[in-house]
Amino acid sequence: MKKTFLTLFISCILAAVANAQFGGGFEGPSGANAPQLTVKQALNLRDESAVILKGHILNSLGDEKYTFSDGTAEVIIEIDDEDWAGRKVTPEDTVQIFGEIDKEMFEPTKIDVDSFNIQ
After folding, report:
1. Distance of CA 105 to CAs 32, 99, 108, 110, Å?
2. Contact, 77 vs 100, CB < 8 A?
3. Which residues face 77 on adjacent strands?
4. pLDDT tops 80 at residue 51
5. pLDDT (average), residues 31-46
6. What is the pLDDT of residues 88-117, one digit of tens each?
7. Do residues 100 and 86 lie in contact, with contact meaning Cβ atoms separated by under 8 Å?
8. Residue 39: is it exposed, middle or buried by C-beta count within 10 angstroms (0-12/13-18/19+)?
9. What are the domain boundaries of the chain?
10. Which of 44, 88, 91, 109 is most buried, by the most CB atoms less than 10 A from its CB?
11. Integer distance in angstroms from the first to the last C-alpha of the chain?
12. Is the pLDDT of residue 7 over 70?
């Protein structure tokens, strides 16, 4: 029993060390080869389609939702609080968002943002 516990304990430590040394991982939407689109084009895509958009976050709608525009149209985007990672964005900042289309019955189309960067 002690030998099994010791083996498990050592395996956990080795896994933690490997994660610390080789940390990181995939950033961006599934389908990372998605082309950069306009908001107008993105609004015509199917639910769960991967998108990359470049534009401006215009205002906060509360509850992790924001209005986003690239000049062709506006769309509601959802950015989880933890995805901000301390970054500050103003309406003057250009941001590139990576996410996917979210279409729900009786609600406007929105984009669930997986990650974003400030240009």
Report:
1. 26, 19, 8, 12
2. no
3. 66, 111
4. yes
5. 85
6. 999 999 999 999 999 999 999 999 999 999
7. no
8. buried
9. 36-118
10. 109
11. 56
12. no
DSSP state at residue 48? T
Query: Residue 33 carries which DSSP code?
Result: T
What global pTM score does this model have?
Answer: 0.72
Tens digits of residue pLDDT in 8-37: 555 555 555 555 555 555 454 445 567 789
* Cβ–Cβ < 8 Å for 33, 42: no
Q: SS3 of 102, please?
A: strand
Token digits of residue 52 = 């990359």
Q: Which two tokens mark 72?
A: 């062709």
